[in-house]
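Q: What would this chain look like folded?
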Amino acid sequence: MTPIPTTATPTAATPTTATPTTVSPMTVTPMTETPTTFKRILVPVDGSELTQRAIDTSLDLAQQMKAGVVGFIANPRVPRIAAPEAGDDESLSTAQAQPVLARFERAAHERGVPFEGVFVQVPRVDQAIIAAAEAHHCDMIVMVTHGRGAFGEFLFGSQTKAVLAGSKLPLLVLH
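A: My prediction, written as structure tokens:
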């Protein structure tokens, strides 16, 4: 290809005598790959006030992409060191998780989005999210961050940052 000679337009920053410059022509290659589409989206929720945002946004996205959604609740297992009589923590957590997943499932059904609800008790929530994405063949994760700031993150940690650091999947973070 032959370079195309051009003349620079004088401005206040350039002298009035124009010197020819050479610009190589740009070659545009048509896109031959199909755009990435996601088939299964993992959506970790915790029942907080931000859960509805995760449900609505993930279902809108799933509708557009014709994808399924895996609603996921991972409850951190608290070790019982001194109080074994404290009650059945797992059945209490299950009772709290069921209505959240049922609400998510109803919303998915209303929008025609395939849905699977999963609840687990684990020592580390971030690792459970990553493992669930792999186990359920998800190709994207949608999470809501609480945005606690530096002090809150120091006290409570950041599940979103831990998932971002540990997962190879695309992560959509909602605020």
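Residues 82 and 110 are 46 Å apart (CA to CA).
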